[in-house]
Amino acid sequence: MSTPNQQGINEPPTHHGGLENLDTEYSYTIEDYEGVVPADLHGTFFRNGPGRQRIGKEKYGHWFDGDGMLCAFTFRDGKVHFKNAYVRTPKYMAETEAQTIRYRGFGTQVPGGMFANLGKTPANPANTNTIYHGGKLFALNEGGHPWEVDPRDLSTVGEYNYSGELQRGQVFSAHGRVHPASGDYINFGAGISGITLKGPQPVLNIYRINPTGRLFTKGQLSLDNFPFCHDFVITNNYAIFFIGSIVFKGMGGVLLGRKTISDVVAYDPAINMKIHVVDLNNLHLVKTFETDHGAIVHFGNAYEHNQEIVVDAMYQDGFAANASLTNVFHPDSKFNGGIYKRYILNMETGKVSESQVSPTESEFPTFDTRLTGQASTVCYTACSVDNGANGFFNGIQRVTSDGDCTLVTLPPGMYGSEPLFAPSTNSSTEDDGYILEVVYNGFEHISELQVLRADNLNDLVCRLPLKHHLPHQFHGYFTAQTFC
């Protein structure tokens, strides 16, 4: 409900209700909805994110530390089925039983001070993204290996290491990309190549996995610093990594148990952004570009055009958001986006040019992934718009390659999430399909799935209210397959 401010004027509810736990696991068909479920929308929309930010009487110390909870919306024959389930990681199992914090996290310490955390590595909560590839569904978090989940009922199968090819200590990013021409899944993870007199040597380990799920090629990219590298892009021939100005400094304090990783991550404007272009065939470095300081958390699409590589990216010139992420229930916490930029990398001259694509604060870009690495003309982003209730994402936009923007803003008190493109059955063009957007209604403390026409965001095809709220989640994946 709305709450009166100091002047007695009712204000819309904040986004904070969407951070409360969902402890119940459901499975049901959505019966009561508005509009018409499209007959040409067939498949499964998976989502992943923290399902709880508290355990017992304790709050986790960072949004990144909540336990992973997968959701699945299944579209078939004009009906929609919903289910959700937690990933049964060791962290989830131990803390659920004890009803207290038992594992360190990105920003969470085990109660008991330095000696309770000495030498303990952060747990993998399997809470960031999901993908269905090689006949398997995975819950992903870059703090460890993938976790395999049964797509039929979302039950946990177990930690997955690609028949031992993903070795102990080799972590796996939450943001892989599927190469459309080959069907191969490209992923990466931060690591170290060894210890020298200067200390640990940071690298990115790069992995290529074929359509049957075999990890058959590995590469390694040497780095100058330990970066916050969360996402990357691919083209037909290259993988491109933007190594920005958000870095980890003072990891010794983390190993000694005195600090969390969140405590030592910082934005350093003295560090320029380096852009590494890697050959996808052999995973060797081809070229490095350098530009002013900055950071990219999430990317849209990328493609090659003559001797240039075009990359869409959500740019930030700081990491102030980390303060909000460490105390998500603070009244002043805000979760906002960055600047939608387009980078052009000239592989002949080494020149980098950039331009702002949209004036609206943007994050969580999505596009028709059938065109991954190829020229595409449409991208969709979550937006933060000043409408009196803008502490969280409250709109989405459709942006074309020539800069035409269509912005749809939610009413104050309703908050959105990452939009996801789902192609219609037999779709042949990139915007022939739907945008799937989970919306939290702060007035009623419930969530709904909104289905909008991808070629016209003002066409809200149907609203599918759930029986409960869904905690704000991170990322999702759509597959044309159904499993129940």
Write a short abstract of this structure.
The chain is mostly beta strands. The protein contains five helices and 37 strands. The protein is globular, with a radius of gyration of 21 Å.
Shape, principal axes of CA atoms: globular
Question: What quaternary form is this?
Answer: single chain
Mean pLDDT rating? 94
- Compute the number of helices: 5
Q: Roughly what fraction of the amino acids lie in strands?
A: 35-45%
Estimated helix fraction: under 10%
Number of domains: 1
The radius of gyration over CA amounts to 21 Å
Question: Which structural class best describes the helix and strand composition?
Answer: mainly beta
Q: Unreliable stretches, pLDDT < 50, 5 or more residues? A: 4-8
Number of strands: 37
Terminal-residue CA separation: 36 Å
Instruction: Tell me the major beta sheet.
Output: 6 strands, antiparallel
Features:
single chain, 5 helices, 484 residues, mainly beta, five-stranded antiparallel β-sheet, globular
Explain what this protein looks like in three dimensions.
By secondary structure, the protein is mostly beta strands. It has one domain. 6% of the residues lie in helices and 44% in strands. Strands 4, 32, 33, 34, 35 and 36 form a six-stranded antiparallel β-sheet that branches. A hairpin with a 4-residue loop joins β34 and β35. The longest helix has 9 residues, at 90-98. It is globular and about 65 Å long.
Write the layout of secondary structure elements.
Blueprint: E1 3-4, E2 10-11, E3 27-29, E4 34-35, E5 43-52, E6 54-55, E7 58-59, E8 67-76, E9 79-86, H1 90-98, H2 114-117, E10 129-133, E11 136-140, E12 147-149, E13 156-159, E14 177-178, E15 185-196, E16 199-209, E17 215-222, E18 233-234, E19 238-243, E20 246-248, H3 251-255, H4 261-264, E21 265-267, E22 273-279, E23 285-291, E24 295-305, E25 308-316, H5 321-325, E26 339-346, E27 352-356, E28 361-366, E29 378-384, E30 395-400, E31 405-409, E32 414-415, E33 420-423, E34 433-441, E35 446-453, E36 456-465, E37 475-479
